[in-house]
Automatic annotation (TrEMBL):
Protein name: Uncharacterized conserved protein, DUF1697 family
PANTHER family: BLL4334 PROTEIN (PTHR36439), DUF1697 DOMAIN-CONTAINING PROTEIN (PTHR36439:SF1)
Organism listed in the record: Rhodococcus maanshanensis
InterPro entries registered for this protein in UniProt: DUF1697
Length: 174
């Protein structure tokens, strides 16, 4: 049995409000075991014997669309992959006054595109690094939405394939 983490995009922001108890019930209803939500930002841990990740992802997205009535997208990772992502964070994760972020995607090409576009930005002190299936981002606290990379990552073309988590959240998920 594998431990999976479903990272929902855009939950409890922008008018998409889902109670974590309802989210847990929806995911449990798909037959997954050990379902647990972490924080109120759409992080779901569960166990499954299923190995077809694309099918799991599709089933969860369909369930969310039907149950909660929004255009749902998730990024699905297993526990060992998430542990490697956290361990590989290349910047000073606990730097005072800074946010350590990880952008995850269901389409690695979108991360490659985003990283290539970031190379032409005047990033100032913020840092972006391409990892194994993720982008690592370090930005000064209070600048997330105004920073050049923050604006790039918020573009509509990345909405259906990417999600962003603070490294502290990913540590809690582990």
């Amino acid at each position: 049995m594998a431990r999976y983490i479903a990272l929902l995009r855009g939950v409890n922001v922008g008018g998409i409000n889902i109670k974590m108890a309802d989210l847990k019930d929806a995911i449990s209803g798909l037959g997954f075991d050990g379902v647990k939500t972490v924080l109120a930002s759409g992080n779901v841990l569960f166990d499954s014997d299923r190995t077809d990740r694309q099918a799991i992802k599709s089933d969860i997205e369909a369930c969310l669309r039907e149950r909660f009535g929004y255009d749902a997208w998730i990024v699905l990772v297993d526990h060992p992959t998430l542990a490697a992502i956290v361990e590989s964070f290349p910047f000073e994760a606990d730097r005072d006054g800074w946010h350590p972020y990880v952008l995850l995607s269901s389409d690695p090409a979108s991360l490659d595109d985003m990283f290539a576009a970031a190379q032409s930005l005047a990033l100032g002190d913020e840092s972006v690094a391409l990892g194994d299936g993720v982008l690592y981002w370090h930005v000064e606290r209070g600048q997330t939405l105004q920073s050049p990379f923050g604006k790039l990552s918020a573009k509509a073309k990345y909405k259906s394939t990417t999600t962003n988590r603070n490294l502290r959240t990913l540590r809690k998920l582990l």
